[in-house]
Amino acid sequence: MTITDQIQPTTPPDKERLRRKYLEERNKRLRPDGNDQYVQIKGRLAHYLDDPYTPVTPRAPKTDHVTFAFIGGGFAGLVTAARLVEAGIRDVRIIEKGGDFGGTGTGTCATRARKCIASMIYMPLLEETGHMPSEKYAHAPEILAHCQRIGRKYDLYDNALFHTEVVSLDWDEAKSHWLIRTNRGDAFTAQFVGMGTGPLHVPKLPGIPGIETFKGHSFHTSRWDYDYTGGDPSGALMEKLADKRVGIIGTGATAVQCVPHLARACKELYVFQRTPSSVDVRANAPIDPHWFAEIATPGWQQRWLENFTANQAGGTAEVDLVQDGWTDLNRRIRARIIQLPREQRTPPNMLAAFEDSDFEKMEEIRARVDAIVRDPETAARLKAWYRQLCKRPCFHDSYLQAFNKPGTHLVDTDGKGVEKITERGVVVAGREYPLDCIIYASGFEVGTEYKRRAGFDLAGRDGKKLSDHWAQGMRTKHGIHVHGFPNAFFVQPTQGANLISNIPHNLTEAARTIAMMVSHARKTGAKEIEVTKEAEDGWIALLLTGPGRMIGSQDCTPGYYNNEGQEPGPAAKLNVGYPAGALAYFKYIDAWRSSGQFEGLEFR
Ligand code: NDP
Q1: Is the same domain home to 468 and 593?
Q2: What confidence score (pLDDT) does residue 22 get?
Q3: Which of 405, 424, 440 is the last residue of a domain?
């Protein structure tokens, strides 16, 4: 089935009824503790962070010097390193806490998880590596293999430090370089540092009473325990679960990937749900090599990236190359706006068109649940009652179907969440569900302070800590540079394009920008690159002129997209992007770096 063949709801939506229902469901879920409902994984819970994938190889501590050190071996580090190598900077050292390249996007995903973003735009450097993804949505092992391919192609392995966590980063004023210390005893220096440590790499656990008392087995989805479950990341049946009662807590994007595999393998599977995800058609399919050979002409991936962003983030592309649920929603909104006479295309009318398309889309998604899930009560509980972009939209072709299996049980908590965990299992509404294993699909730290998410702080010029500089919220230019922290670059979406659908597009653009700046410094003999205070302040002022989110965060069900439904404080208000949108940002940053002026930066 394709996106356009979806089940159509039979009657036009009653908008007032829907608005009331959305509000009612949101109110059920609002909690005064917001982000504090989650607990940091440390102390008695620290074992949830153990890396079960690769054995730690002993090595001598590093005390040398490199031109560029990058913290994080996921896509951010790989694409930045690749662009630096292309620019002739060969001594790039990636520091990664896992045992290989891959970061959050790959090795940490559950069994045969696939991304909900098409491989053609999600997997970076496809053109450079000459790789054709096997499917529209590649699964995790293919993405991991691609990370390794990038590592090999750009010769990044020899210099990389795996199973290594940075503990401190100190700017040495006299020598214009950074001193990097790690948990493996390293103390080496780098002229430049890049950071790709987030936003979704530190797992979090729900602060459910009794969480530490469970006597069975348990793990977080980011540390999938194949020794316990059997199977492997390529999707082999998790045969060791055949006699097990397994509970999974959480029904976000990660759980949507895992549940079908668990349902296939477990004796009994209990899915503990607080808020249902919206799960639309994915329509995965193999990529035809003949088709790929035709479209893969020079510059193809950049064209696809820009086309997706234009279709998804408010642009006006004629064609839709990716054709997925993300672009579908935006194209529907645009079609409605175009129907309006020109003089009626006012912001309120456009927002109304957005809301109408959203209602229409969500009604389809809810109708799809009824069409797939046989038990009407289960179907009713799997329906999402909020606007589609309030939470990460999910796309899957076998998640809802999993609830038709006799051994799969939805335990809906009606917005309240799991009540407590005991030695034997999970309690909801006073009933205990005895379990052999609990899997936490409870997500990653997003709204917490940088030091907590990164695991280290930076001490910049005059020893100033980044955590102090950002005490009232993130302050950067382009999301990359921070005044007082020379030669340090952040590779992430916030305060740049802020394109939350296809994160790798943000990363590949930042990587290009950084490689051009570092090349410029080398050509001109500059030892330091730093954003001026005025330029940083000016950028923040510009960001704050933006329209904010198209859906007010107060109108959404709580989640990490809207600060768990709490009124955004001064810090959360700075978690925004370029006011004119992602596509405009990418055009702007291309012109900014190509001019060779690097306006707002000082090269010394
Ligand atoms: P999320 O933060 O999206 O989901 C956490 C889940 O845990 C939610 O369903 C939440 O419920 C639930 N939860 C929390 N506390 C409790 C409780 N006390 N009782 C019951 N349930 C509870 O994390 P994910 O790991 O699912 O996804 C994180 C992000 O990773 C995604 O948003 C996406 O950006 C990325 N990702 C993308 C994928 C893709 O592209 N396919 C795949 C996987 C991840 P509630 O909703 O009520 O808060």
Answers
A1: yes
A2: 95
A3: 440
Which string of DSSP letters, residue by residue, matches 212-272? Answer: GG--SEEEEGGG--HHHH---TT----GGGTT-EEEEE--SHHHHHHHHHHHHH-SEEEEE
Domain identity same for 150 and 70: yes
Mean predicted confidence (pLDDT) in 200-228 = 91
Answer whether residue 198 shows pLDDT above 70. Answer: no
CB-ligand 1 contact for 444 (6 Å cutoff):
yes
Would you place residue 140 in the very low, low, confident or very high pLDDT band (cuts 50, 70, 90)? confident
Mean pLDDT over 184-196 rounds to: 97
* Cβ of 392 less than 6 Å from ligand 1: yes
d(CA 483, CA 466): 10
Confidence class for position 549, pLDDT limits 50, 70, 90: low
Q: Name the burial class of residue 227, with classes exposed (0-12), middle (13-18) and buried (19+) by CB atoms within 10 angstroms of its CB.
A: exposed
Q: What is the mean pLDDT of residues 484-498?
A: 96
Give the Å distance between the CA of 44 and the centre of ligand 1. Answer: 23
Task: Report which of residues 173 and 448 the model is more confident about.
Answer: 173
Give distance in angstroms: CA of 250 to centre of ligand 1: 6
Using a 6 Å cutoff on CB, does residue 206 contact ligand 1? yes
- Does residue 106 have its Cβ closer than 6 Å to ligand 1? no
Does residue 278 have its Cβ closer than 6 Å to ligand 1?
no
The answer to the question of residue 297 being in a domain is no
Is residue 220 in contact with ligand 1, taking CB distance under 6 Å?
Answer: no
pLDDT tens by residue, 262-295: 999 999 999 999 999 999 998 899 999 999 999 9
Tell me the C-alpha distance between 136 and 130, whole Å.
16
Whether residue 251 has its Cβ less than 6 Å from ligand 1 = yes
CATH number (domain holding residue 471): 3.50.50.60
State yes or no: pLDDT of 112 exceeds 50.
no
Nearest CA to ligand 1 atom 21: 250
**Residue 312 burial (CB count, 10 A):** 27
Paired tokens of 188:
């080496």
